[in-house]
């Protein structure tokens, strides 16, 4: 290789010398570093060995500068996040969640930059990989939130009561979290499978150990689920690799378009005019909205369960009898339409992926969660036939041209209190009853007239028939004498038969 480069350079120099008449010294063809080898103009006058060394030094310097820049950006992000947490602690929960998600996205970008500029050269690549594996994850060392710290302390205090078993559980859980942090950029399906397999393996171990009762195993698994999912929540809830956010926007848009749906259209057996029932409806809406603020799947299921129990109480007060399943599902659909819970599809997918399967397969939590999934599916496929409306009315309501509640709202003054609105409703009801009574009286009078006309018509027809065919009354005929009686008046009759005896 060096010989070829030398001959090519020598030939080029000789040609230039012949053309220009310039004498080229042999020292000009040597490497700039003075190693004794010939240099190459393509390598800025260095030989191949010196060029490789210079290039490696420049690359290592660039990597170090990029690494320092990435660390500085991360520190700035952490300081900004900590200051925002302190100064904006009284803001709404939705905005806090948005800020948390935004910070996670920025941190993920910084981590990606670090991985992109990490040392991966041929020299010392294995050593760098070993050091990177031993170093803790940046996400683990980041400043944890108050809720995460509180859950961690509760988990440790809970495991202290189990002594050696608690230490094993904590060690296994810690190893699982570290593995999830290192591989968190994989698909959501992989994350869900890992979490579910972890639940399954821990449950089997606890059941085999000293024949632990199922109640205690369930309590331990609840604490493990709470600790794990609180730490992983910001990475696995509504991740960028899925279309959960797109589905959330579609469901929100659909519910907003169905704002005109009334309880009567859904056959909801709930009378919100009753104060107790109205309070139950408000509590149910609050619980279904509060589901988005929880991190643990079990806590989200608890919100659904509380919402469902408020619905059952509202139906029971309205009907003065226990509610049935046929009454519950339409009312749940109405609550979802009226509340429009935030990130509904993301919460449903999160519960499905990361909740303990034993909780979803049995119990009231699983039953109420199944009904919620059915309610969302019904809302997505709701059409005119589902509401017993004509397609024309359904299209007009969906387009916003008119609303079934428009006429009712026009009758009320904007400043009217609840009593005045109730008075307007009662007057409207009395007016409808009056119209109904008048309609019934008119129909009764018409029926009476029809009966009189029918009676007169029948009497006239009978009279016409009698006049056309008069009735003739004839004297009765004399009664005939019996055949066996003595008939003196009529001698023409033969005498009675006499019995005769024949000799056999």
UniProtKB/TrEMBL annotation:
Residues 245-388 form the VPS9 domain. Coiled coil: none annotated. It is found in: Cytoplasm; Early endosome; Recycling endosome. Residues 484-504 are annotated as: Disordered. Keywords: Acetylation, Cytoplasm, Endocytosis, Endosome, Metal-binding, Phosphoprotein, Protein transport, Transport, Ubl conjugation, Ubl conjugation pathway, Zinc, Zinc-finger. InterPro entries: DUF5601 (IPR041545), VPS9 (IPR003123), Vps9-like (IPR045046), VPS9_dom_sf (IPR037191), Znf_A20 (IPR002653). The lineage of its organism: Eukaryota, Metazoa, Chordata, Craniata, Vertebrata. This is Rab5 GDP/GTP exchange factor. One of its GO terms (biological process) is protein targeting to membrane. GO terms for cellular component: cytosol; dendrite; early endosome membrane; endocytic vesicle; nucleolus; recycling endosome. GO terms for molecular function: DNA binding; guanyl-nucleotide exchange factor activity; small GTPase binding; ubiquitin protein ligase activity; zinc ion binding. Residues 25-59 form the A20-type domain. It holds the Pfam family DUF5601.
């Amino acid at each position: 290789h060096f010989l070829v480069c030398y001959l090519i350079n020598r030939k080029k120099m000789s040609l230039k010398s012949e053309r220009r008449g310039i004498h080229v010294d042999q020292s000009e063809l040597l490497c700039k570093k003075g190693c004794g080898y010939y240099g190459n103009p393509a390598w800025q006058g260095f030989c191949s060995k010196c060029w490789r060394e210079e290039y490696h030094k420049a690359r290592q310097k660039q990597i170090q500068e990029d690494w320092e820049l990435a660390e500085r950006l991360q520190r700035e992000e952490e300081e900004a996040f900590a200051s925002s947490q302190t100064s904006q602690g009284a803001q709404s929960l939705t905005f806090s969640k948005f800020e948390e998600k935004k910070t996670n996205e920025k941190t993920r970008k910084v981590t990606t930059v670090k991985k992109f500029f990490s040392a991966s050269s041929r020299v010392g690549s294995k050593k760098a990989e070993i050091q990177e594996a031993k170093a803790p994850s940046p996400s683990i060392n980041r400043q944890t939130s108050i809720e995460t710290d509180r859950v961690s302390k509760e988990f440790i205090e809970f495991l202290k009561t189990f002594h050696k078993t608690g230490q094993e559980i904590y060690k296994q859980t810690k190893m699982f979290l570290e593995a999830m942090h290192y591989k968190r950029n994989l698909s959501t399906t992989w994350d869900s499978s890992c979490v579910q397999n972890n639940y399954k393996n821990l449950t089997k171990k606890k059941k085999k150990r000293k024949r632990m009762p199922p109640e205690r195993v369930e309590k331990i698994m609840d604490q493990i689920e709470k600790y794990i999912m609180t730490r992983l929540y910001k990475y696995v809830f509504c991740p960028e690799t899925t279309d959960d956010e797109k589905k959330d926007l579609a469901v929100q848009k659909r519910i907003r378009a169905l704002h005109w749906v009334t309880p009567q259209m859904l056959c909801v057996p709930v009378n919100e005019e009753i104060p107790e029932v109205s309070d139950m409806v408000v509590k149910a809406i609050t619980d279904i909205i509060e589901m988005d603020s929880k991190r643990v799947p079990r806590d989200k299921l608890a919100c659904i369960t509380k919402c469902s129990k408020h619905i059952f109480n509202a139906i029971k007060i309205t009907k003065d009898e226990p509610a049935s399943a046929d009454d519950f599902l339409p009312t749940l659909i109405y609550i979802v339409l009226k509340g429009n819970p935030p990130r509904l599809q993301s919460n449903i997918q999160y519960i499905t992926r990361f909740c303990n399967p034993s909780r979803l397969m049995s119990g009231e939590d699983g039953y109420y969660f199944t009904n919620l999934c059915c309610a969302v599916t019904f809302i997505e496929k709701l059409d005119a036939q589902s509401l017993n409306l004509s397609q024309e009315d359904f299209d007009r309501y969906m387009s916003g041209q008119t609303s079934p509640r428009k006429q009712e709202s026009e009758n009320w003054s904007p400043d009217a209190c609840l009593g005045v609105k109730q008075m307007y409703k009662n007057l409207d009801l009395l007016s409808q009853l009056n119209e109904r009574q008048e309609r019934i009286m008119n129909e009764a009078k018409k029926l009476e007239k029809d009966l009189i006309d029918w009676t007169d018509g029948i009497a006239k027809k009978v009279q016409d028939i009698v006049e056309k065919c008069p009735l003739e009354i004839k004297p009765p005929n004399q009664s005939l004498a019996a055949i066996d009686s003595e008939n003196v008046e009529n001698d023409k009759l033969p005498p009675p038969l006499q019995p005769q005896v024949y000799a056999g």
